[in-house]
Structure formats: structure tokens, C-alpha cells
Amino acid sequence: MISVQGLTKSYHDKKVLADINFEIGQGEIAGLVGPNGVGKTTLLSCMMGLIKADSGTVTMADELFTKTDMYKKVGFMQDNSVLYPHLTGYDHLSYVAYAQNLSLDAVEEVSKHVGNDSYLYQKVGEYSLGMKQHLLFASAIIHKPKVLLLDEPFNGLDPTSLIRIREIIRELAAQGTTVLLSSHNLNELDRMTRHIYFLKDGEIIYRDLADHHNFSYVLTVTKQPVGQQYEDIQVEVINDTQFIVDKANLNQAISLLNQDDNPIVDIERTQFSSENLYREIYQEV
């Protein structure tokens, strides 16, 4: 579980975090949302002790986060600025394994699970953004943490990698890991959780999306649907073979796809929809 109580942080005269309070239960996934520069990374870094908060307490896995051995229970995925371009992915993961008192077998195991085993021995300076994301995620979960903090884990991922990372996060939560996930990808958050913490003006605004029923559906097809008829039903394209349509237009979308001889591979209902809440809270169109 995660419990943050009275957390504050200021830089000079600017208060970035103002009396932050929230709790996330064991095995729950929660989203942390807000525009760039609002303080999401600062909050995660304060929770991890990488930035010293001005006041407040952080409890994770039932212990106050004040001891270095807490890192054995908590995983943190930061941005790729923490990687060393002259080292290989194996170098990074073997160092984390050593720090966690794990055997090097854990490096091979987590790499196969995440999907970075095919380029594990390349230097990170040769990595694409998506490859770096794989490595950062693997580093965060190699020790099977009880609490997992993720800062923009979906950046730069192709659809195959995104699906794999999403499923691993769900697996960890099902096994009891508590996950706090900061992301701009509202569609992915909608597919993973109903618990969203919006950060605005240094304060947390919690919303349970189950109270805001506005279901939509993600359709996976064999080719990209094109034409005015799809625009008329307000299809939102995710990529070449996936798009989102709301419940009211689902049957019409299926009918159009059948007419176009575009077989449907999968239909998945998003659990909830956070976009309208985002617009409301941040007053953005």
C-alpha cells in the first residue's frame, strides 16, 4: 500500500506540492495525471526520497520510507536521463541485481519477460526511446517490488510493447503490487484503473471514474478505417489498426467495418473515461 500524508515541497517562493494526502490500497493501480510542469515527477521523487520534501510522511509497503532498505520493496521507473549511454542494458540490470542481492539469472528472466532480451548486450547509446523504456521498466521490476512507481512508462512504445507493458503491470497488481502510474496517455489509464489523482496548483484532486460512466470501446481491425462515414461517428484513431468509438456509435462502427470488409480482431471496452474530467479540472478544450 501507499500512504502520503502532509507532503509539501517549495522551490524558492513557489509551492509545488501543498499538503498532499492520498492512499492507495494493496494491489491497486492508480493514475497520476496533470499537464507538463505541474509537479508529478517532483511528487514521485519526493516519495522516493530523491528530492527532500519540506514536510510530510510517505508510507509504502507498511513502512515509513526513511531507510535505504526500503528500495528492496519499492520499484521506481524514472526517465531515461538516468541511463549511461556507454554501458549496455545488461550492465545496467546486473548492477541493479547486485544492489538487490539477486543472482544474475534475474537479469535474463526480467529481460525475456519485458522483451528487451534481443538487444540486452547493446550499448544504451544505440537504443531507441522505446528500447530505453523497456530497460527502465525492467530495472524497476527486476526485484518484484511490493510498490511500483512509474513515471511515463508508455512514452515511445510501439503497440506491441505497450500491450506487453500494460499486461505486466496488471499481472503485478494481481499479485499484490501497488502501482502509482504517472502518464499523459489517458486512454491507457482508462484501460487500467478507475482511480485517478489529478495534480493541480500543488494539490491532489481524486476522482473515482466509476462515478462518471462514459464507456467507450477500443476496436482493433486489420486495416485503418478511412472515410467521412467514420468521421461522422467521431472515431478517434490510436494507430493504423486501432481506434476508439463511444458506446452510442459502436453498432454503427461495426456495421461500417463489415461493409468495408475490414474484419474486427478485437473489441475491448475501456473501463472508464478520464478525458472529460481532465478538461473540466484543467479547463482545457
Q: How does this model look, in words?
A:
The chain is α/β, with parallel strands linked by helices and 285 residues long. It folds into two domains: 2-211, Rossmann fold; 216-269. It is 31% helix and 28% strand. The chain has nine helices and 14 strands. The strands form three sheets. A six-stranded mixed beta sheet has the order 6-7-8-3-9-10, with helices on both faces. The chain has a four-stranded antiparallel beta sheet with strand order 2-1-4-5, with helices on one face. The longest helix has 16 residues, at 159-174. The model has no long low-confidence stretch (mean pLDDT 90).
Tag the structure with descriptive keywords.
285 residues, Rossmann fold, globular, alpha/beta, Putative ABC transporter ATP-binding protein, single chain, ATP hydrolysis activity, 4-stranded antiparallel β-sheet, 31% helix, 9 helices, 2 domains, 6-stranded mixed β-sheet
Write the layout of secondary structure elements.
Elements: E1 2-11, E2 14-24, E3 29-33, H1 40-48, E4 55-60, E5 63-64, E6 74-77, H2 89-99, H3 105-114, H4 129-141, E7 147-151, H5 159-174, E8 178-182, H6 186-192, E9 195-200, E10 203-208, E11 216-221, H7 228-232, E12 236-239, E13 242-246, H8 250-259, E14 264-269, H9 275-282
Parallel strand pairs: 3-8, 3-9, 6-7, 7-8
Antiparallel strand pairs: 1-2, 1-4, 4-5, 9-10, 11-13, 11-14, 12-13
Helix pairs in contact: 3-4
Domain ABC transporter: 2-226
Family: Belongs to the ABC transporter superfamily.
Pfam families: ABC_tran
